[in-house]
Amino acid sequence: MAASLVRLGLRSIALNLERTAALLSTTTVQNQIKLIHSKATCTGTVCYLPEREAELDRGIYRRYSKQHGRPDQHRRQDSDSASESDSDTECKGFDRSEFWRRKMRTVHNILDVDKDGLISFSDFQLFADRFKALGHLDEEQAKEFTAIIRMTWEEQWGAIDPYNFVTVEQYLEDMHHVLTDRSLKKRAHRWLPYLFKAVDKDKSGYISVAEFKLFFQCLGLDNEHAAVAFAVIDTNGDGKLSLKEFVKLGKDFFFTEDESKVSKMFWGPLIDV
C-alpha cells in the first residue's frame, strides 16, 4: 500500500513538471514570435527592439547598434561612448545647422559610389580608384594615396570588413565628432592633396577649369557644375587654384556652417534631402 502511494505521488509530480515545462515552452515560443514580428524603432544611431509587453509598459527596450552583428573587436570605438546616458545615443550631427547637414549628406552621396545608401570600404576604394585611374599620380603617390585612404577609414569608421558600413546618420555624427576632436580634425582629410595631384594633368602645381572638370568627373558630376563651381571658388579670378587653395576649400566645406563661404561649391551642388 505504501509503495502504491509513493508511485502515485511521483507520478503526480511528474505530470505537474510536464505541464509547467509545456507552459514555459509555449510562453517562450510566443515571446520569440513577438520579437520576430516586432518593429524596431531607430533614433540617431541606435535601434530599439521591444522585449515583452510588460517591459513595453515600463518603457524597457533592448538596444542595438546599427553595427550590431559584427564581432566586438571590429566595432568602431567611439571615445564619447564611455557614458550610457541618453545624450550618448543621440546623433550629435543633428545639433548642427541644416546647411551643414546638407553639405555632409552631399559628400555621403558622393562617397556612396554604388548608390545603395551606405558607404562601405569598397565605396571608399572605388572613389580613390577613379582618381588613380586618371594616370597622373606616379607609383609612389598612388601607393601613399591607397595607404592614406585605408588609414582614414580605419581611424574614422573602424574595421575593414563587408559588414561595416556608414549610414547618413552615422556619417553626420562622425563628422560632428571630427570637428570637436582636434587630432581627428587635423588628420581627417589628408587625402585631399592626392585628389589635387591626380587632376593636375600638366603637373604645373595649379588646377585650371579644365582640370577642375576632371575632379568633378571623378565625383560623378558633370562639366557644367564644375564650370559654375570653379567660377565661384576662384575668388581672385586668376583662372587657377593652387594646392593650398584647393585643400583649404576642401576642408572649409566640412568645417564651416557659414553659408556665405564659397567653399560650399567645392563638392558640387548640395542635395535637397
From TrEMBL:
Q: Which stretches does the entry tag as region Disordered?
A: 66-92
UniProt keyword Nucleotide-binding, yes or no: no
Domain of life according to the entry: Eukaryota
* SUPFAM superfamilies assigned: EF-hand
- Per UniProt, the ranges with Basic and acidic residues bias are 69-79
Q: Which InterPro entries match?
A: EF-hand-dom_pair, EF_Hand_1_Ca_BS, EF_hand_dom, EF_hand_pair_protein_CML-like
Has UniProt tagged this entry with the keyword ATP-binding? no
Signal peptide boundaries: none
* UniProt keyword terms in alphabetical order: Calcium, Metal-binding, Repeat
GO molecular function per UniProt: calcium ion binding
Task: Give one Pfam family.
Answer: EF-hand_7
Domain EF-hand, first and last residues per copy: 99-134, 195-222, 224-256
Q: Per its UniProt record, what Gene3D superfamilies does this chain match?
A: EF-hand
Q: Which PANTHER family match?
A: EF-HAND CALCIUM-BINDING DOMAIN CONTAINING PROTEIN (PTHR10891)
- Its protein name is Sarcoplasmic calcium-binding protein
